[in-house]
Amino acid sequence: MSSAPAAVLTREAPATAPQDAPRWRSRGRALLPPVLAYLVGHLLYTVAGALVAEPFLPITGRVRADSGLYVKIAEQGYELFLCDSDPILAPQFAPGAWCGTAGWFPLYPGLIRLLTSIGLGSYEAALLVTEASLLLSFVLLWRLLRNTARPVAAAVLALATLLPAGVYLHAVFPMALAGALLLGCVTFTAARRWVLAGVAGALVAAAYPMGVAVAAIGFGAVATLLGRGELRPWAALRAGLAVVGLPLAGLGAVFGLHHLTLGHWNAYLLIQEHYGNGVHNPLHSLAKLAIEPSVIVIAEPRQDLLWVLHTFTDAELWWALALALLAVAAAVIASGRGRLRPFDAGLALYAVAMFVGPLIAGPGVSQYRSHTLLLPALLVLRHLPARLLWPYAAVAGVIALPMGMLFSTWLLF
């Protein structure tokens, strides 16, 4: 009698293992598209670098002028001084202008500093933050597309991979970090976890100046729910305070940090002022960018690439404008079909804010770099047909390759 149960147990014991294996295989398959997108992006910019005989994958291939400023903040903290006090800088700026590192936001340098405390070099730490953030961005984007038809979802993922200024998502800049946090904010907003969405938004605002536009995502979502009667007024007010108030608090924390460390709460504004950035008419900025040649930021640019610079920075600008308009159109279409999710409305508002915001700051602001933060707005395009999205992605790729070439030759800043 004792052998019968043993025989039963022997037959049943393996039954649990085959059930677990498909689950892990399923999870692995779910990660395959975002990992593939991550690798294809690296391949794209490696090819772009090779076309101009510049290596892209090493750390030196991902570092540009502002990269050093983020690392300097991580290593030495913030500094602010009158440009007149530096004999090298004084001739470059008007009397009374301020110089220093306060024109760059603290979250990315803070993470670099944290990682250097465990033995990594500053640039290695910076690139690690970038790479981890970029991979996480693709994973979060694909997860948010999980209920979307596969051809459309694949097209949206391709758009993210081929984003025209996407080279900055691979570089020693805070763009990938801000992108991952933005998609985290969208994820929490979709789940109606307002405080967590607000915290993610606050971190975005502390990562990049234009990141405060993240407040539009939560605002649009809460306003949509309130309009539908799915949130009571007091609940909507509490949610709004979280998703709008916390990003504003994140921006305020940057000013507070500057006040504590530099004695000037407006240190960021002082630095931006000497670049001519401030409050501008966005239409005037757009016209200037469209008409005038692109700024050349190095003393000896490659002459054979100047036409590439002027042509494809303009193309990137119009592609980004098209994205903002398509996001609004997709949200309107989804609303008409009864398929609009609350975060879609927020992302449509965000897309407009993220395109217009840098124009308000001025034509001297790197528009294409800020446009990388349009990444989450691609989600709204899932309401459009794949036959429209794939040609749009092809155009993105045609722009992204030369933009990578320009980055590798220091013609982008």
Automatic annotation (TrEMBL):
<keyword id="KW-0812">Transmembrane</keyword>
<feature type="transmembrane region" description="Helical">
    <location>
        <begin position="388"/>
        <end position="412"/>
    </location>
</feature>
<feature type="transmembrane region" description="Helical">
    <location>
        <begin position="194"/>
        <end position="227"/>
    </location>
</feature>
<protein>
    <recommendedName>
        <fullName>Mannosyltransferase PIG-V</fullName>
    </recommendedName>
</protein>
<feature type="region of interest" description="Disordered">
    <location>
        <begin position="1"/>
        <end position="21"/>
    </location>
</feature>
<keyword id="KW-1133">Transmembrane helix</keyword>
<keyword id="KW-0472">Membrane</keyword>
<feature type="transmembrane region" description="Helical">
    <location>
        <begin position="239"/>
        <end position="260"/>
    </location>
</feature>
<feature type="transmembrane region" description="Helical">
    <location>
        <begin position="347"/>
        <end position="368"/>
    </location>
</feature>
<feature type="transmembrane region" description="Helical">
    <location>
        <begin position="125"/>
        <end position="145"/>
    </location>
</feature>
<feature type="transmembrane region" description="Helical">
    <location>
        <begin position="317"/>
        <end position="335"/>
    </location>
</feature>
<feature type="transmembrane region" description="Helical">
    <location>
        <begin position="31"/>
        <end position="53"/>
    </location>
</feature>
<feature type="transmembrane region" description="Helical">
    <location>
        <begin position="152"/>
        <end position="182"/>
    </location>
</feature>
